[in-house]
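ok trying again, last paste got cut off:
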Amino acid sequence: MGAAELDGHYCYGVQVHGHCESDFERVAEVFAAQLESGRDIGGSVGVYLDGKPVVEIWGGSADPGRGVPWAEHTITPIGSTGKALASTAVLILVDRGLVDLNEPVASYWPAFGQNGKDDIPVHLVLSHRSGVAALDEPISNDQAAALDPVLRLIEQQRPWWQPGAKHGYHAMTYGFILSGLVRAVTGRTVGEFFADEVARPLELDLNIGLPRELYNTVAPMIGPAQRQAIRSMINPVWFRFALGVANRRSASYKATFAGTSVSFDDAAELVRYDVEDASAGALGNGPSLARMFAALIGEVDGRRLISADMMNAARQPQASGRDVVLRVRTDWGLGFALPGGPMWPDVGVPGLFGHGGASGSLGFADPEHQLAFGYTPNLWAELSGWFNTPFRFHALTKAVYECAGVRRWPRA
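nice, full thing came through this time. structure:
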């Protein structure tokens, strides 16, 4: 399998940089086509096979307003895909015997046990079944930067349902619960732990809380305006969620639009990249996401993040069906999403685990085929699009499997 250097290479009239193995050039072609069509403005894609990079490409504009092109180490906000970074940190602690999935969170973080949360085990948080899916008041960036104010709110919060009885997306609380747990066990926040134990050893451009001296590497997220985000819910897929959000007292509203005081229109607040928000504020790029997921299922340059047993446990279904927050089907393992619902449609390849974000990003691993994938665009996701518009990652991942010779992809 030969490697093709793509520095300055033109596909469909646009430049795609980086490299890909010759057997995977179709992935670069699909990415270039998305840039040419305007579906992508800038972005990056990574694919690992058997622990080795076969695709590490980028292209387009990192900042159209300033004329800045996407570069090798450009990073961009990855939304909820950052939850996979926090989950990785916790699973490392589980693998080391420092956290027990069946023990209550309160056994490590005693104050968490207030108001009916004393018996919530770690695995219920990781599978979005704890009931602590939303807070009664929104989180501000100031509170998130200080961390302790958010942890106090979590400690005082009552579960929205009987823990374990249902599952519902912990859109904003997830990363902060894990940060509180990681700090209680290690003395480090989840961002600090991830940087020390994952990002630096593997040389990843992935951050939960970005040092200010690296702000110049960020491709700011483009769109949507607040009104566009709300308007996207006329999509029939989100109709039930829209009804839920209309009730300002519902978990659907409190966990999502009311989960933070920062709106889509708060430009200054949206660029506070130093805030350690593992739920929605991490930054990264596609090749680094792919590298991290490759290290979850095997060795990458001699390093493996978790054991095979831990990896297999993480991808076992813990919850599937109607999500009481998003009001669509979601599927969860331990800390990772599983294919199934509209957020990440089932592609007919069993055993995948990963996470996507409303940014449009996606990272996942396929242990059976020893594949890992990462994609990070800077144009907001199709969640703000119309009706049955397919996700951009769908065409990219289909190309990956075609190039890998896996022919189980369902017909479109």
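cool. The chain has a mean pLDDT of 93. Residues 3-404 form a domain with the Beta-lactamase fold (CATH 3.40.710.10).
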